[in-house]
Amino acid sequence: SSCDPALRPIMRRRARSLPTSPERRKKAAVQCQEPGCQSRMNRVRFADALGLELTQVKVFQTGEDPSIPLHVLSRLSINSDLWYSSLNLEFTMQCLVPDFQQPADCLDFSSRLQEQQVCLERVTSSDLGLNGTIQVRNVAFEKRVSVRYTFNQWESIHEVCARWNCSIPEKNGQDQVDVFTFFLPVPPFLLQLSTLVQFAARYQVNGQEYWDNNRGKNYTLRCRTHPLKLPRECEESWIHFI
């Protein structure tokens, strides 16, 4: 004998839709008018668990606009006004700005390259760091170009190798110049006010070493804050998007 209650079979009932209206039953019972056709016309009806209609058809006449409830319009208007008033259309961006003129834009660029054998051409700032190009005179095939840089006034130094990019003829048309590219990674937390990045280009060839350190001053980039403002068309596009 067991004290457990007797198990009852699970009752499964099939969901049934509520009875349709007399008009719908009348339409569903319409016989086919074609001669020899004895079948009824099949109709599809969508209903929920209670048998209520899931769809409602609304036919709009030409030129008739849908009617939107006033409480919906007022809520949309209030939300758009609140968003527009709280939207900060001005923000600041921090980036590294060179404290020097781009060497390639200077009139003495060719003479500096002849004198130093190596010269920075251009450097640009991005979200990830600094990208730049260096020109060196093609003294020999085997050569090494690198960039030595610091974030703390040369208390600690880092160095990255530059990669060969292309060869171009020198302005005199007789000698050849090699162009190298480099990338200096700058961590985002260093992009603060008064942060400095200093670097110099190093060229090693034929057992000799040449430097381009901006004539003893090094190349310096300083972190600065720039205010930016969204144009008017962007303001309106944000409002429409919301």
UniProtKB/TrEMBL annotation:
GO biological process, one term: regulation of glycogen biosynthetic process
Source domain of life: Eukaryota
Gene Ontology MF terms in the entry: glycogen binding; protein phosphatase 1 binding
Cellular component annotations (GO), alphabetically ordered: protein phosphatase type 1 complex
InterPro entries: CBM21_dom (IPR005036), CBM21_dom_sf (IPR038175), PP1_regulatory_subunit_3 (IPR050782)
A Pfam family hit: CBM_21
CBM21 domain mapped to chain residues: 110-222
Xref: PANTHER family: PROTEIN PHOSPHATASE 1 REGULATORY SUBUNIT, PROTEIN PHOSPHATASE 1 REGULATORY SUBUNIT 3D
Descriptive protein name: PPR3D phosphatase
Organism: Hypocryptadius cinnamomeus
Taxonomic lineage from the root: Eukaryota, Metazoa, Chordata, Craniata, Vertebrata
